[in-house]
């Protein structure tokens, strides 16, 4: 398949117009959102959605998130239990996905045969305009081949999807770079199924009884969200992550890079001058948002440089740091180590 490419930074109107046409034809188009790029199709059209599973090589038991642009659309898609209205009022549009019991309009494959559906209202202007003009919700999981790091720029989307889908809309770098926080509102007690930009503390302000699915932060536990049980966010290279005592970590990295393996480093900005090896900056160690923005694209860049091993420096913090910890846990297959004095 020839993949059409449109640059939405240079010519937003044309890019949006063609994306809408292709989506109305039942095709799959990659679109920018504020979190990561989404692989979009008509969320009410079963055969269009099945194309997403094929393109991503996504297991059929992993459901899709439906993206809407206006609140009125929500009522047709869910059986409303009145939950989450404060979250919606203050945090939508944005990087927050809510799970409700589904209405009977939703195709089975979107929910992976279950009785709940995940909904998000993205804030990215290009995504919003495409959804608005389509007049149907867009099913749009991350635009990577299953298991790989999510794409956060047009080049990374093309790496996985060129020749596989009808179109790619390039909106430049994603602002957040990490997937949405997923909150299940369908059960007895609201639960975070996937940590994201919004932390447990952020959500508690609007939903005091929300709790974290603790399996998300333990290696080897089985989480409640189907998508969280798979190997994910992982580059081809092996990954090891270190947090704790900064000087000791530097010492250890110096030891590790003496081996024959081709090793790449992801370091905080203040550590960059200490090494000469292939390395990329994670920004300010006190600002996890900077790390989130570049983490996935750096993992992909290290794969392009054909590294055998990627060593990552990390600061374990509350808030957004929890989402980063969860992604690193997966990307490294559990190889995340605390380094003490
Ligand atoms: P992605 O869009 O690729 O970032 O993946 C969507 C995430 O949302 C995956 O982790 C899915 O398992 C999760 N998800 C989507 N729909 C549901 C649902 N109905 N119940 C639980 N998790 C869901
Ligand atoms: Mg994904």
Overall 3D geometry?
Answer: globular
If you compute it from the alpha carbons, what radius of gyration comes out, rounded to the nearest whole angstrom? Answer: 20 Å
Strand content: 15-25%
Poorly predicted regions: none
Derived structural class = alpha/beta
Strand order of the largest sheet: 1-8-2-3-7-4-6-5-9-10-11
> Main sheet, how many strands, which sense, barrel?
11 strands, mixed
Could you tell me how far the N terminus lies from the C terminus, measured between alpha carbons in angstroms? 55 Å
How helix-rich are the residues, as a percent range?
A: 25-40%
Average predicted local confidence, pLDDT = 96
Describe this structure in words.
The protein has 341 residues and is an alpha/beta fold. 29% of the residues lie in helices and 20% in strands. The strands form 2 sheets. An 11-stranded mixed sheet has the order 1-8-2-3-7-4-6-5-9-10-11, sandwiched between helices. It has a 5-stranded parallel sheet with strand order 14-13-15-12-16. Strand 9 (181-184) and strand 10 form a beta hairpin. Helix 1 crosses helix 5 (125-134). The longest helix has 17 residues, at 288-304. The chain is globular. The protein starts with a strand and ends with a strand. The model has no long low-confidence stretch (mean pLDDT 96). Bound molecules: adenosine monophosphate and magnesium ion. Magnesium ion binds next to loops. Magnesium ion (MG) binds at residues 141-142, 150.
């Amino acid at each position: 398949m020839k993949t059409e490419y449109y640059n939405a930074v240079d010519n937003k109107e044309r890019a949006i117009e063609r994306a809408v046409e292709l989506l109305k034809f039942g095709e799959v188009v990659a679109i920018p959102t504020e979190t990561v790029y989404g692989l979009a199709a008509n969320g009410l059209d079963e055969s269009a959605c099945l194309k997403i599973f094929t393109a991503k090589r996504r297991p059929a038991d992993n459901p899709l998130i439906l993206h809407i642009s206006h609140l009125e659309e929500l009522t047709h898609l869910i059986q409303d239990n009145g939950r989450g209205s404060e979250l919606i009022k203050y945090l939508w549009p944005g990087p927050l996905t809510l799970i409700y019991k589904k209405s009977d309009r939703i195709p089975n494959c979107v929910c992976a045969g279950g009785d709940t559906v995940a909904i998000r209202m993205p804030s990215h202007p290009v995504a919003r305009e495409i959804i608005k003009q389509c007049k149907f919700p867009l099913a749009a999981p991350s635009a990577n081949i299953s298991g790989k790091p999510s794409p956060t720029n047009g080049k990374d989307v093309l790496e996985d999807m060129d020749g596989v889908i009808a179109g790619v809309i390039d909106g430049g770098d994603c602002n957040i770079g990490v997937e949405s926080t997923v909150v299940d509102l369908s059960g007895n007690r609201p639960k975070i199924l996937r940590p994201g930009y919004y932390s447990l503390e952020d959500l508690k302000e609007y939903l005091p009884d929300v709790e974290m699915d603790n399996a998300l932060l333990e290696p080897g536990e089985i989480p409640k969200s189907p998508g969280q049980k798979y190997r994910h966010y992982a580059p081809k290279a092996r990954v090891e992550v270190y947090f704790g005592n900064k000087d000791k970590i530097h010492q250890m990295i110096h030891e590790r890079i003496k081996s024959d393996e081709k090793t790449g480093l992801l370091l905080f900005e203040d550590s960059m001058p200490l090494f000469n090896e292939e390395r990329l900056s994670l920004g300010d160690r006190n600002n996890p948002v900077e790390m989130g923005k570049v983490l996935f694209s750096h993992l992909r860049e290290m794969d392009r440089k054909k590294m055998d091993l990627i060593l990552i420096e990390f600061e374990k913090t509350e808030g957004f740091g929890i989402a980063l910890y969860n992604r690193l846990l997966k990307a490294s297959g559990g190889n995340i180590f605390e380094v003490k004095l």
